[in-house]
Specification:
Blueprint (H helix, E strand, L loop, with lengths): L4 E8 L6 H14 L3 E6 L14 H12 L5 E3 L12 H12 L3 E8 H5 L7 H7 E6 L8 H7 L7 E4 L8 H9 L10 H10 L10
Parallel strand pairs: 1-2, 1-4, 2-3, 4-5, 5-6
Helix pairs in contact: 2-8, 3-5
The structure holds adenosine-5'-triphosphate and magnesium ion.
Adenosine-5'-triphosphate (ATP) binds next to helix 1, strand 4, helix 4 and helix 7.
Amino acid sequence: MSEARRVGVYGGTFDPIHFGHLAIAEEARVALGLHQVLFVPAAHQPLKGAAAGARPEQRLAMVHLACADNPAFVPDDLELRRPPPSYTADTLALLQQRFGPAVELWFVLGADAARDLQRWRRVAAILAIARLAIVGRPGYQLDRDALEAALPAVSGRYVLLDGPGLDLSSTVLRQRLAAGRPVRYLLPETVRRYITEQQLYRSDEPDG
Ligand code: ATP
Ligand code: MG
């Protein structure tokens, strides 16, 4: 008998996508034997920090570039095709319809996102549809007791994975780009070139 087919669902702003994102998706893929990981850029882009964000189609284009060399990584624009806001519970329900009951869905997220889970819309629906692959992130402690105390419904529906612990964030990349500092070796070279070509994340402040 063959095992259930497992699909990872990895949501994020990806503004821009970086090696921290790719590394935790790969960690979850290998640890859980995921057949594929869908990368799902979120529709709305609240401005974070000083530097302006990329447009949704630019964030999607960067996800495509970043996923190009991993056949198991599949960009998916379903949240961008729907009017915002997109709730994870709705996205997972649509994916459950698409894949059918034979596929086990695993929602991939970092420890910082997991700490906020109990505030997410319809978290019970999320946990009914998908299991969670929670991957460690530097600076964010998460233990089983704290997680299950904050969100009892999560019990038996998640795994905690260590991950490589890359201390990278899109916020820091945007700040570096705005300040003219290097980002090479922090994200795929194809994505870095795209950012340069599209003149993304540049500071609007005039010099001096
Ligand atoms: P921003 O600084 O704009 O919030 P970010 O780097 O946190 O960007 P998001 O798009 O907000 O990236 O995150 C998408 C998902 O990836 C979240 O579940 C987040 O926890 C996870 N994640 C992002 N970076 C890392 C990292 N370096 N290690 C582990 N998880 C990460
Ligand atoms: Mg974030």
